Amino acid sequence: MECLPETLPASPLPFITGWLADARADGQIPNPDAMALASVNPGGAPSNRIVLCKEVVEEPGYLVFYTN
Predict the structure, then answer these.
(1) CB neighbour list of residue 35: distance below 8 Å, 6 or more residues apart
(2) Quick check: helix, strand or coil at residue 27?
(3) What is the pTM (predicted TM-score) of this model?
């Protein structure tokens, strides 16, 4: 896995793309597309759920995810 540079780029998406490719190629990670999606409600209470990353779109810059 590649180390982070001293100066981080404006977008983390190239790193995410590389990390997902590494995890998928490894073949030993049961669900390499799984990620945690967290948010907070207006009162500040956190909530999270596990979703699956379907696609990373570097331009214009977003993740496509889904859940059951």
Answers:
(1) 50, 51, 52, 53, 65
(2) coil
(3) 0.68
The amino acid sitting at 10 is A
For 4-30, write each residue's pLDDT tens digit.
667 877 888 888 898 899 999 998 999
Q: Are 3 and 22 in contact (CB under 8 A)?
A: no
Indicate the pairing of strand 34-40 with strand 62-66: unpaired
In whole angstroms, what is the distance from residue 30 CA to residue 33 CA? 9
Strand segments (E) across the chain: 34-40, 46-57, 62-66
